[in-house]
Amino acid sequence: MSETVAHGPAATRSAGPLIVVAVLAAMSLTVAFLGASPAPVSARELMGATRDPGQPAFVASHRGDAHSAPENTLPGVLAAIAAGFDYVEVDVALTADGAAVLMHDATVDRTTNGSGRLADLPLAYVRSLDAGGWFGTAFVGTPVPLAEEFLDILAASETRALIELKGEWTPFAVAHLVAQIEARGLERRVAAASFDARTLALVATESEVVSRLAILRTLPKDVVQAARALGVRGVLAKGSAVIARPEIVDELHAAGLRVVVYTFNEDREWRDAVDLGVDGIVTDRPEMLATWLTSS
Predict the structure, then answer these.
(1) What are the domain boundaries of the chain?
(2) Which pTM does this prediction carry?
(3) How many of the other CB atoms lie within 10 Å of CB of 198?
(4) 40-85 tens-digit pLDDT
(5) What is the distance between the alpha carbons of residues 288 and 273, in angstroms, rounded to a whole number?
(6) Can you tell me whether residue 47 is helix, strand or coil?
(7) Has residue 9 got a pLDDT over 80?
(8) DSSP codes joined into one string, 72-114
(9) What CATH number was assigned to the domain covering residues 45-295?
């Protein structure tokens, strides 16, 4: 199949108005889109200004307040919020039927009275388990929380959250979680963190507002380039890896990115991290860290 293409001044004159109309239409769509889209959350809005060496980092309470209540349970989250920590960190993973629940391990064995891989278990079974009895008699019968229950509690507070998305998430599951975050007006108070680049990309497709953090056990040669490629606001990195390469803190800060370290529980670790100017510390001992930061 062929077609005749006009050439010369006459063709140019006739095409000119069409080109102008097309460009104006595209500009109008762009302006309308930008006007309707909420502005992305900046790293400064989410985690404050970059810290200088010696300035206090923010405190992120690991898995709720796992020192005071069972980890990744609603009592643990409520304890962290009541204590006034800057951030509460929780782990969210998917059941066999795609429901998002608070759970750190791949299996339910350690933190419930059940057994099996979470990804192989239906929500009805997971919700029937006791996720608190192992911690203490006061918490017997505590269920594994739904992500929505956690978000409800968070929305009723002023606390911010780091939500680790465990494992690989499906597009549907990511879309549902982001919708639940937006429905509660939390998109400017939470950051989604993951080891999995694909999961972070799925979050980005669902929201330009919800911030993302890349979780790193080991540090790539060029951390800034890796963070920019992922489109994240910063890195949530293993503390010992950051201490071994202290220069990355300044490199990330110079790029407008933030550095949060995990999981530091001792004062010597806190001192090393603060001396480097990290922005946040995830810890199992948030009350002690908060006290240490105010007295150091």
Answers:
(1) 1-37, 45-295
(2) 0.86
(3) 11
(4) 888 888 888 999 999 999 999 999 999 999 999 999 999 999 999 9
(5) 15
(6) helix
(7) no
(8) TSHHHHHHHHHHT-SEEEEEEEE-TT--EEE--SSBSTTTSS-
(9) 3.20.20.190
